[in-house]
Amino acid sequence: MARFNALSLLKHSLTGHKNWPEQWPEAQPRAEYDVVIVGAGGHGLGAAYYLAKQHGITNVAVIDKGWLGGGNTGRNTTIIRSNYLYDESARLYDHSVDLWEDLSQELNYNVMYSKRGVLMLAHTVHDVQSFKRHIHSNRLNGVDNRWLTAGECKEYCPPLNISPKARYPVVGGALQERAGTARHDAVAWGYARAAAARGVDIIQNCPVTAIRRGPDGRVTGVDTAKGFIRAKKVAVSAAGHTSVVMETAGVRLPLESFPLQALVSEPVKPIFPCVAMSNAVHAYISQSDKGELVIGSGTDQYTSYSQRGGLPLIEHTIAAITEIFPIFSRMRMLRKWGGIVDVTPDRSPIIAKTPVPGLYVNCGWGTGGFKATPGSAHVFAWTIARDEPHPINAPFTIERFRTGRLIDEAAAAAVAH
Amino acid sequence: MLLIHCPYCDETLPEVEFTYAGQAHVVRAADPASQSDEEWENFLYIRSNPKGPHYERWRHLHGCGRFFNAVRDTISDRFLTTYKAGAPRPELSSLLGDRT
């Protein structure tokens, strides 16, 4: 792998940047692998990278039905934060933020992690109580989060309308300064390049049609559009399509797949310095380095695999955004899209072994999987390599829906997130 | 926007009048106390989540207010049929036959 540095940039600038080598080879499947990972998004590619780097398992293939990073990794609104209520979640998401800190250096690839801060706006007494509870819980867990008055919110985020006459008056906010954004495509590309450099095969445009099991119940490999691939272990990291893939191995999961939409405006000069979210009216907004306002909210109400979603939700989202930020009421929106997210009943992920020997799953990230990419990939690789969970993901089992030991971030936030 | 036929009002109306209410034909046990943990898990949390025709409940919230059932293709979001709550579950073969 040719390393990126100032010298190599300078060298290639002399030839007009026309002679950069390909970042990873176009792999064709071999007959057998130690580990096959289904899904070449950030979570799957990251798991392959950590398997190779930290566990010495390099005979690995990452297989995707489409192109690399073309699913939810390339469709999210790139927000990173770790201000979750419960201890289990705080550990998992903050582990991820710890890894975000050094990810560009780790991968020798600029993922543009920007600690611009995430400001969660409070509009009601209930919001204030709930956010302060979050702040106290976060601080006990060593997660940075602090309370801002409405005036301080305005100072931190000048486009904000804090007039008491506003339809959704801002009475304060919770600010996590270590939170922010990163460039999502670069995360997929950086992990892919670093994993391929350590011998991982990345096989694109090759749908996995079934997971095969032997007479003893153990996984034996996967059927794909390019034929059967034998594998000692299979790890599924397939986001909205996890139910479909896992059903072929006879595993039914507590998941439902919903469209989650996002949209961007025309690009403008820098105007929005942070990420602002409003749970009560349910919308969030930031500005990309290209200058587009990036806007999102919750899922559509009905399950679907359409990667589209409906316009009523967009209308609701934009109505909320223009009330809180009236300055944007004349902005023109450029495009909108949808991704299919797999949602668990408690809105916390599953990163675990399954009842099938040799089969592992990382799913249920719902509307908030991007922020967790490095941490989730790291503990998933550990789980695959050692056949036992890392202490951080040990609570995120499938069995919790039977025992009742939920990690109920749904009830904690009262919104999809 | 989806257009949804309410089988009670007998009108086809915009999606915003309706709320989605999850998978249909999930039957609550007659004797809940006799259920095992696994049966409770299945009842509460495990859903079919198919890529294709899905039997689901909707409520005509901003209309007659009643719950009804529907079969919708989750790939195209096209409704194959809607029917009143309590009506028998229509066979998929008869619905897919209509499409050709």
TrEMBL record, chain A:
Every Rhodanese domain range: 35-79
Catalytic activity entry: sarcosine + O2 + H2O = formaldehyde + glycine + H2O2; sarcosine + (6S)-5,6,7,8-tetrahydrofolate + O2 = (6R)-5,10-methylene-5,6,7,8-tetrahydrofolate + glycine + H2O2
Subcellular location: Cytoplasm
Enzyme class: oxidoreductase
Signal peptide: none
UniProt-listed Enzyme Commission number(s): 1.5.3.24
Biological process annotations from GO: tetrahydrofolate metabolic process
Keywords: Cytoplasm, FAD, Flavoprotein, FMN, Nucleotide-binding, Oxidoreductase
GO cellular component, one term: cytoplasm
MF terms (GO), sorted A to Z: nucleotide binding; sarcosine oxidase activity
The keyword Oxidoreductase belongs to this UniProt entry's keyword annotation: yes
Cofactor(s) this protein requires: FAD; FMN
Pfam families per UniProt: DAO
PANTHER family per record: FAD-DEPENDENT OXIDOREDUCTASE DOMAIN-CONTAINING PROTEIN 1, SARCOSINE DEHYDROGENASE-RELATED
Family per record: Belongs to the SoxB family.
Name of the protein described by the UniProt record: Sarcosine oxidase subunit beta
TrEMBL record, chain B:
InterPro entries reported for this sequence: SoxD, SoxD_sf
GO MF annotations, alphabetized: sarcosine oxidase activity
Pfam families (alphabetical): SoxD
GO BP of this protein: tetrahydrofolate metabolic process
Signal peptide: none
Record-given protein name: Sarcosine oxidase subunit delta
Organism from which the protein derives: Paracoccus salipaludis
